[in-house]
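Pipeline run #58 for the internal structure catalog. This entry was flagged by the ingest filter as a single-chain record with no existing model, so it goes straight to prediction. Upstream metadata was stripped on purpose; only the residue string is passed forward. Reviewer on rotation: M.T. Logging verbosity set to normal.
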Amino acid sequence: MAAITLTEPGHEGATYTLTGPAPVTHAQIAAALTDALGREVTFTDVPADAFADSLRGILPPWQVDGLLEDYAHYRRGEAAAVSPAVTEITGRPATDVWQFARDYAPAFRGLTGLPDGGGNRLAHGRVPPMIAPERAGRLAVRTGTAANGCRRRCPSALQAR
């Protein structure tokens, strides 16, 4: 998308809503990750205060507030809209959450602190910058627009088991 809109004429000043081909729920995202990783990943809908408390000391207050706003956005079902922009601009269908999970499974497997499928915690790997290593077993995940229909960061409480 970026390459096309930045290098081809006709996109000057345009704003596009980028989504996947269908709306997805947090439970569906967890199911897609479970399928791709070969280990159970579940979504736990935690109260906003508990979610905020788990992020305090890791993120600045303004970012915690923004994530709470996004969390409420999902809870109200406001991220369910689907846009044809990806297909219209690229000529290819948008990637669905199942394909996204399969494509990026190696990166998800590389997260420090997640079980390796045999019950062992991984000792090495990358932790996304917004996640402190001591909290990597319980992730506040920023899901992307191509996977879930949200134009902003959209947190989920995902627990790998």
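catalog note: The two ends are 35 Å apart (CA to CA).
catalog note: The mean pLDDT is 75.
status: ready for reviewer M.T.
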